[in-house]
Every structure is written in C-alpha cells, then in structure tokens.
Amino acid sequence: MAKRKSFTASLPSLQSITYRFWPHICKQSHLLIGAFFALLAETGLRLLGPWPLKLMFDRVILPTGFNVHGHNIEALAEFSPLLVLTILAAALVVISVGQGTAAYFSTVGMAVAATHVMADIRSQLYNHIQALSLSFHTQAKSGDLITRVTYDIERLREVTVVAALPLVTHFLTLIGMVGVMFWINWELALIAIAVLPFFILTTTTMSKKIHKVARTQRKREGAMAASAAEAIGAIKVVQALSLQDFLGKTFAKNNRKSLKESAETQRLRAGQERLVEALVAIVQALVLWRGVQLVLAGSATPGDLLVFITYLKVAFKPMRQLAKYTGQIAKAVASGERVIALLDTVPDVRDLKGAKSAPAFRGDVRCQNVTFAYDPEKGILRNLTFAAKPGEQIAIVGPSGGGKSTLISLLLRFYDPIEGGVHIDGHDLREYTLTSLRQQISIVLQDSVLFATSVRDNIAYGALGASNVEIEAAARLANAHDFIMELPQGYDTILGERGATLSGGQRQRIAIARAAIRKAPIVILDEPTSGLDSTNEALVSDALNRLTQGKTSFWISHNLSTVRHADQILYIEHGRILEQGTHGQLMAQAGRYAQMYRLQSGSYLSDLPARSHAP
Ligand SMILES: Nc1ncnc2c1ncn2[C@@H]1O[C@H](COP(=O)(O)OP(=O)(O)OP(=O)(O)O)[C@@H](O)[C@H]1O
C-alpha cells in the first residue's frame, strides 16, 4: 500500500500522477484553460481591491499635501472630489463583483473538468480490476479495492477544487502583492517579507506533525473499511456465529482511535492558525510602526500604508490554512499512488501477444503433463495427463483438497500451468483470447452467485443480448420456468443480493439456465448438487443431464453415485490422477475409487432400514 508523504516529499509523486493522468486531463483542456484565465483575472482584481480606498484617502479625505508619491491616478485630479468619490465607490463594487465572477468561473470550470477526468479514471480503474487475475483477487481485500474506486478517486477529484485551486490562487496573489508592495515602497515591503522565513518554518514544522497524525488516521480508516466490508459481505456467518458483538466492539475500538486522531489533527491545525495570526499581527505592527514614520516624513501616503496593511491581511491570512491545503494535497497524492499502483498491476493471466479469437470448439480437451502451484513452494497438481473427446462426460472425483477445482480453474484459464499445457481441439488455450475462450465454456458451481437484478437479466448474463424466447427456453431446460412464473413478477422479479431471496435449488436452476443459454460446447460443473434436498437434487440433476447433452462436460462430485455413468472418471488425490477409467473398470481395479464408492454406497444402504422405519 502507498505510504502517505509530506507535501514537499509528495511533489515528485504529484508530478508523476499528473503525467500519468495527462491524457485524461488533456481531454478537458478547453475547460482548464478557461478556468486558468478566470483565475488570473481573479488574482488581478484581488490586487486592485484596496486601491479605491487608498485613492479615497489620498485624493478625497486628506489635504493634497499628502500626495507626495506618484502612486495616484493623475487623471482623477481633473475631477471634483465628489465625482472622484463616486467613481471610486463604484470601482469598489465593480472590482468586488468582477472578482466574485472570476472566482465563480475558475471554481466551476475546475470542478467540472476534475469531475470529467475522475469519471474517466474511475471507469478505467473499474475495468482494470475486473480484468485482474484470480491470483490477484484471492489475495486482495474487496473493501480495499472498493475504497480505491470510490474514496481515493473522490479525494483526487475534491482536492483540485478545495486545495489545489486555492493554493494556486493564494500563491499567485502573494507574488503579485509582493511585487506591488516593492513598487509602492521597498522599505516597507522588505519589513513585510522579513516574516516569510519564520512563516515557512512554523508552517512546515506544524504541517509535518499534522501529516503524521493524518497518515495514521488514514491507515486506520482503510482497515476499518476493509473489515466492515468483510463483515457485511459475510453477514450470514457473522450472525450464525453470533459474532456481531465481538466484531462491533473491535470496530468501535478502531473507530474511537480514529476519532482521537481526527481531534488531534484539528487541535494541531487550530494551533497553527493562531500562530500565523500572531505572525501577521507582528508584521502589521512593524509595517505600521515604520510606515507611519515614513508618512509623517512625507515619503509615503496614508493610502500607501492602507494598501500595505490590506495586502498583509489578504496575502498571509489564507496562508494560515497552508497546512490544510498541503495536507489535503499530500493525502490526494497518497490516493493517486494507490490508484496508480492498482492500474499498474498486470494480470498474471492475460491475452498473450498474437492471441487470436478462438474458432467454434468441437470440444476435444486434453491436459498434457500439467503441473501447477499457487505458491512455488507447494505443488498442487503434478504431471496430470488426460484426454476428453467431444461430447464425453468426465467425472472428477477424489478426497477434499486433492486439486479437483484447481484443475477446472486451469481449463477456464483462471491460472496458467507452470509446466505442460491444456489443449482444446489441438491448440494450447494460451493461443486464444481469454474472452473468446471463456465464451465457449459454461459453468455451474456449488454455490452459484446470482446478481441483484431481474431473473431475466440473470439468465441473459450467460449470453448478453439473448431474446426473451431464448431466456424462457433456457429456463425450461433448467426446470426453472415453473417456479419463476410463481415469483411475484415472474421473469421480472428482482432478486436479493447474490440471489439471497431464492432457495439453494432455485438458485442452482437459474444458474443452469444461465449456463444453458450460452450454448457452449464445453460445460463445467463443480459440485452443483451438493447441499440440496432430494427433490431439488432430482430436479437439478435432470436439468444438468439436459444441459450436458452432446457437450464435453467436466463434473466434479463428492457423491460418486451421481457420476457413475460418466464416460471417464478421473480419481485425483494429492494433485495426481491415481486412477482413470469407467466406473466398471475402476471398480474392477478395486483401488481407491472402488473403496470410496463402496464406503459411500455402504453407508447409504445401512441408512435404508433406519429411513424405512421412520414414522
Ligand atoms: N487460491 C488459492 N491459493 C492458494 N492455495 C489454494 C487456492 N485455492 C486452493 N488452494 C489449495 O489448493 C489445494 C487444492 O484445492 P482444490 O480446491 O483444488 O481442491 P478440491 O479437490 O477441489 O477440494 P474440495 O473437494 O474440498 O473442493 C488445497 O490444498 C487448497 O488449500
């Protein structure tokens, strides 16, 4: 995870973030250029702000004897004092309205441009996360990923208006004011800027402290978001284990700590603001002390002094929030780094150079000496070889943890083998693009995930753009049509998140319909009937038989009786195919499969008398 940095330390990162997002920024160039010109206009008008007052002092209120300097508009000397006063009063209003209008356009221009840029980046990030390999997603925390797509992007957007824009405005204003002050009176200007080193020293020291506390707070917030997402995602387990109180207390503890850090940041900020106010008071006193002497000596006008005092207030006061602005920018840089780190993550499994779109498969699947490990230290599949002819049903059985699901993941190219290869119709999977490969494989898993949308859409996700007739035909094949019609809005019924409003058997049948509509030549079934009651199991099995008709299918099952009719059975243990053949052949071998089968059917038979005697 990217580390938070102080503002100065984050400048190079700021540069690289800008460079990285430059193409997105360029798309908004017209808005940004407009906003920049509005910003320049605002700064110019801000510099002009105190001048009507100065001229009122020097031209209208005070005797002409005070007009010792050349900083007056000579043309005004032609007019009567009342007319001058009226012009200056009107000028005050024009300057103020002009400044407000320019500020409005610069803020709105910047905000709109930032919103567009961030919307672009957010979409890019979302698509990138979707494309990342399973090896990444099994390690990543979904709460953290969601925080990057939402919170981090939002902070980047927000910072442009709430920190970067004011910072640039104040910086330009400061430079302009220092220039004008030297033009009016270099001696007073020197006194005014003498305070700058102290100012910079105190603000940087304080900023560092604030950043340190804010960094800890941000880390804690990230962890809190991740643990909240995890607990909410697993709410069923949390409630079943009655973990609410325990998890609630842990969350509350972190929350309290985060609040404490937030209060500490506020305390430091308030302290810094008071310090800057004191510095501004000191510099104002010094300017007044020397300025009044210069006015009395006739080398400056009272109006000049007024301009100085106003500039000091205008230029330095917003700078007391320097820590706030720089802090926000430093935080945004950390967010930008998190976003870039994610965008830079290259999927382990991706389209190789020269990968082509797969032709329609016949369904000849071969594994040739496949070896695979999630962790290089711990081999999972070892030298697996088998072949499935088009239309054959292959059962994959064996003890838990043997590597059955892992083998299936390789067929879908969720992972690539370390050695050997998986071939379809004589070609290595890696020759094809991922999308064209997966489009020709249907899957039904043990706990099929449905989406919180209509039943119709859930089925159509199997083949985007499918017609209503195709959707209904798929539902009928999956034995799902009848129960769907009994739902409140039939096919338009909106399901709960992950299909929570349906029974396990109903979920499976919609998942089978989703797989059926794909009309893929290869079907993968990973324990699709486990956990179902006998009625549902019969309905689902019947649907699965129709789904796999004429397709090459791979069926993982712990219940050997459901797959005994398979054309080929692979018995996998400790990542090796120990036995391979039809049910009859394996039973005749009297090996591990036969032992497992007898154990299962034996317990089933011994159950029967007990069942038949049940009331
Ligand atoms: N994403 C992963 N990262 C690291 N190890 C994993 C991952 N997925 C599975 N494993 C490990 O790989 C081994 C094989 O797991 P796999 O899920 O393929 O077994 P299985 O035969 O399908 O088991 P089951 O019948 O219980 O579903 C197990 O030791 C498991 O801990």
TrEMBL record:
Keywords: ATP-binding, Cell membrane, Membrane, Nucleotide-binding, Transmembrane, Transmembrane helix, Transport. It is a multi-pass membrane protein. InterPro entries: AAA+_ATPase, ABC1_TM_dom, ABC1_TM_sf, ABC_transporter-like_ATP-bd, ABC_transporter-like_CS, P-loop_NTPase, Type_1_exporter. Signal peptide: none annotated. The chain crosses the membrane at residues 30-49, 82-105, 161-184, 190-210, 275-292. One of its GO terms (molecular function) is ATPase-coupled lipid transmembrane transporter activity. The keyword Transmembrane applies. It is found in: Cell membrane. Gene3D superfamilies: ABC transporter type 1, transmembrane domain (1.20.1560.10), P-loop containing nucleotide triphosphate hydrolases (3.40.50.300). The keyword Nucleotide-binding applies. Residues 33-331 form the ABC transmembrane type-1 domain. Residues 365-599 form the ABC transporter domain. GO terms for cellular component: plasma membrane. This is ABC transporter ATP-binding protein. It comes from Leptolyngbya cf. ectocarpi LEGE 11479. The lineage of its organism: Bacteria, Bacillati, Cyanobacteriota, Cyanophyceae, Leptolyngbyales.
